Amino acid sequence: MDFNDTPEEAKFRAEARAFLEANCQPKAAENDRMLRSLKPKEYMQAAKVYQKRKAEAGFAGITWAKEHGGRGLPPIYAVIFNQEEAKFDAPSGVFAIGLGMCLPTVIAFGSEAMKERYVAKALSGEEIWCQLFSEPSAGSDVAASKTKAVRDGGDWVVNGQKVWTTGAHFSDFGILLVRTNPDVEKHKGLTMLIVDMKAKGVDVRQIHQASGGRDFNEVYFTDVRVPDDHRLGEPGMGWSVALVTLMNERLAVGGSYGPDYKEVLEFARAASSPSGDGALIKNEAFRQKLADWIVRAEGYKLAKFRTMTALSKGQTPGPESSIGKVINANQMMDIANTAIEALDHYGIIDDPALAPIDGAFHQSYMFAPGLRIAGGTDEILKNIIAERVLGLPQDHRADKGVAFKDLPSGR
Amino acid sequence: MNFDFSDDQKALKDEARRFLADKASSKVTRGVLNDAAISFDQTLWRGVAEMGWLGAAIPEAYGGLGLGHLELCVLAEEIGRAVAPIPFSSTAYFFTEALMAAGSEAQKAALLPKVAAGDVIGCFAISEGPGAPAPGAIKAKFDGATLTGAKIPVTDGDCASHAVVAVREGAGVSLVLVDLAEAGVTRTTLKTLDPTRGHAKLEFNAVKAERLGAAGQGWDLAEAVLDRAAVLLAFEQVGGSQACLDMALDYAKSRYAFSRPIGSFQAIKHKLADMYVAIEVARSNAYYGAWALSTEAAELPFAAAAARAAGSDAYYLCAKENIQTHGGMGFTWEVDCHLFYRRAKLLAVQAGAPAVWKEKLVKRLEQRNAA
Q1: B355–A306: do the CB atoms touch at under 8 Å?
Q2: Which of A6, A76, A295 best probes binding to B when mutated, by most B CB atoms within 10 angstroms?
Q3: Cβ within 8 Å of B, A 73-132
Q4: How are beta strands A173-179 and B199-208 bridged, if at all?
Q5: How far is A345 from chain B, CA to nearest CA, in Å?
Q6: Longest dimension (CA), chain B
Q7: Which residues 6+ apart lie within 8 Å of A340 measured at CB?
Q8: What local confidence, expressed as pLDDT, does residue A325 receive?
Q9: What is the model's pLDDT at position A34?
Q10: What is the Cα–Cα distance from B301 to A119, expressed in whole angstroms?
Q11: Is A249 a catalytic residue?
Q12: Of A287, A312, A326, Cβ closest to residue B277
């Protein structure tokens, strides 16, 4: 048992570090919240420049096959690069969905012509991708998608609405799950298309979140024409294609967010205890909570080390990595809630200039409810653990053997 | 990155699981549960000694297998899974670790080979009443030659042949080694929540004893032993938690209500998923403890406290929800759920309750950050 890299891994880590040192600034502090000072336009420009260099240096698509511009290395090397990249102010976020979910789907199901057209430009950051799955009435039950595509000559004509699409407002292309046959069971009537986000009839509107931010979009499709050669997989096979995309999503959304327990310790040294006779860190009830957070944060970090070990041995991590988001989203909420309450009445002040850690607890408090839902709700993730890891039987389903058009849909 | 046990260690674990499935079925545990006159299973104890497990971490020079602590960790997980009714932890974790950490050459040479052979059963006596053991709470006295005082409760104190006892010596605390066959020792068997393990009150009336380690160093030594034992107990807790989840899963897949398996209901699924998550957190923390223990890393006190806190919480959750998943059947004497529920509580409070280890964890975080 050890935490050391193999000689090959260590060599790769050193290369990654050299690249990062040459191309980005190290984070000022371990928990520095990235590139705060950049405006959206400057950020996007910096991101595209960075991604191009990353691709040229062979650090984009580390696990992708060489024929697709990748390096053909085992997943452990991508983990190593990500670990190193996390120590820098690297603007890689806008490409995460495209390169983490969309393009692997294009590579798995696209024709040679599609791969030739799209893969290299995505990898070099020239084109940005988004994923169009969720709908107003298809969230956890994403296979209930209603957005329909009807064949017209060599094209599909798309009408409908997608929602919660991250980055749609700055994306060039998207993978789009559509209903092509409402007369068969719901999982059998779906098809996956590549859609040009700048095409006529595509209307992107930013969602105003409960947290105040605008990170996601609604996307409306009105008579949008998609050529049939932009189809991924056979008509009616869209669900199998979507599963490949979603498998990658849960890995991507598993990181930790918000102030960590070390920052909480600092905070608790400065804040005062409810009895008013000393620092919060001296309060026993608080210390017990802090211990629980340490145990879970360490447990999550160490579980990732176990996953890395499996990857290092060439094994593939399974759906057990779903535990990350269940642990982190709830912990983030609990920490934020406890810290805000510890400030007593002052805790209501949501001004970065006045609140502790530049208002990071307040941001966490407002963002955590979204995190418990995004990329699979807590409940869906627990179903996945129960069914795919623990082997429990599926719930009774009301949609078995019923044509999609005949399913009850509520409001 | 190699944060996992080796193939040899995994093979040892498989071998241990097969051995215990055969020799330590719940029938064996129930044999001890149902008979107030016995406090452990003799046959299983001899079997475990013959397998060499008691000496897994004892060097070959002292009659052990000289394997190491990672091997002892995988054995602990299986012992925990089996709810084995033997004084394994008292002997192989507490007594042995104390002897190896502080024993003189003569003490080690005299006792370790007998421990490895199963001829010595050890115990570790620090508590003198309700509440977390603390140096100020130790009243039992050592005058340089004899020991006077009482310890309650002492796990396996009713069957042990030897004890390591925390005592007051002058102004400080020391550890002493006592042969419990000496004159002046009175043992009173205690009725506990987990009768599958023996417990006693030990009273010492001018009993011959010898110091273990330096005078006045007893509390530091005891803390070090507790940290080492904490990691091993955490593995027992992980093993017990996993056994509860496995049992609950079996039942949820085969028990029908409303004409379908109860495991198809989300209420049950989410309960079992919560158990799984708690076990993954506990297992990962326990592995870190194993690494720290086996490498004598400076992180051991922090890792041990985290492993122990995670293990106690996971086992309690899994043991109680295993009963709940079984419904009424889970509340019967005949179904094994209560064996785990009982053992979960013993392992949670023995050598420091969860709140005590959580406090240690935060204190150690503060110390680490200050350093």
Answers
A1: no
A2: A295
A3: 76
A4: unpaired
A5: 27
A6: 71
A7: A347, A348, A361, A362, A365
A8: 85
A9: 45
A10: 50
A11: yes
A12: A326
Q: Which of residues 220-279 of A touch B (CB under 8 A)?
A: 261-262, 265
Residue range A118-130: mean pLDDT, rounded: 97
Cβ of B315 under 8 Å from any chain A Cβ? Answer: no
| A164 CB-contact burial (10 Å; exposed 0-12 / middle 13-18 / buried 19+) | buried
User: In this complex, do B310 and A385 lie within 8 Å of one another by their Cβ atoms?
Assistant: no
How many interchain CB pairs under 8 A, A with B?
A: 158
Q: Are residues B151 and B176 in contact, defined by beta-carbon separation less than 8 angstroms?
A: no
B227 token code pair? 């940290």
Tens digit of pLDDT for each residue in A190-200? Answer: 999 999 999 99
Residues B160 and B125: beta-carbon distance below 8 Å: no
pTM of the model: 0.94
- Which pLDDT tens digit goes with each residue over B123-139? 999 999 999 889 999 99
Which pLDDT tens digit goes with each residue over B3-34? 999 999 999 999 999 999 999 999 999 999 99
Band (A411; pLDDT cuts 50, 70, 90): low
CB of A118 closer than 8 Å to CB of A172 = no
What is the ipTM, given to two decimal places? 0.95
Question: Of A15, A249, A266, A387, which is the active-site residue?
Answer: A249
